[in-house]
Specification:
Largest sheet: 5 strands, mixed, barrel
Number of helices: 1
Strand content: 35-45%
Bound molecules: zinc ion
Strand order of the largest sheet: 3-4-5-7-6
Radius of gyration: 15 Å
Helix content: under 10%
Mean pLDDT: 91
Order of helices and strands: HEEEEEEE
């Protein structure tokens, strides 16, 4: 069994296209400038419809993390244990991402991380790794 593949929606397609090129993209509102925490079609601040895509520097801080010991599907059985982190990027948006290196060494809340990419089929998934290894 293979791990699930990326299924972009109309709202997330630019994000995933960016990942495929090794670029982390995020949205800002062209009307009020608000950063959108997740890709969407309407600004959460002013309800504007003009949302621009920007490229992130890929640097952020760990808000929280958890270690997954029980695989959610058989495809993840050989990957456990692994760590999923919530990362607040410096530009003001948030990602939930896997972390490089599995559960060892564990991340710390407040730790600075850099977003890299790892292959999943024909796509690249964002992954957090310590900013200073
Ligand atoms: Zn707005």
């Amino acid at each position: 069994m293979e791990k699930p593949s990326i299924r972009p929606t109309a709202e997330t397609r630019s994000f995933w296209d960016g990942c495929r090129g090794g670029k982390l993209r995020y949205q800002t509102c062209a009307d009020c400038g608000a950063v959108q925490r997740i890709p969407r079609s309407v600004c959460t601040h002013c309800h504007g419809l003009r949302l621009d895509w920007n490229e992130s520097a890929g640097l952020g801080t760990v808000l929280s993390h958890t270690t997954v010991h029980r695989a959610p599907t058989p495809a993840f059985k050989t990957a456990t244990p692994y760590v999923i982190a919530l990362v607040d990027l410096d530009e003001g948006f948030r990602l939930m991402v896997n972390t490089r290196g599995g559960a060892n060494p564990p991340l710390a809340i407040g730790q600075r991380v850099r977003i890299g990419f790892e292959p999943r089929g024909d796509d690249l998934l964002p992954i957090a790794e310590p900013e200073m290894p």
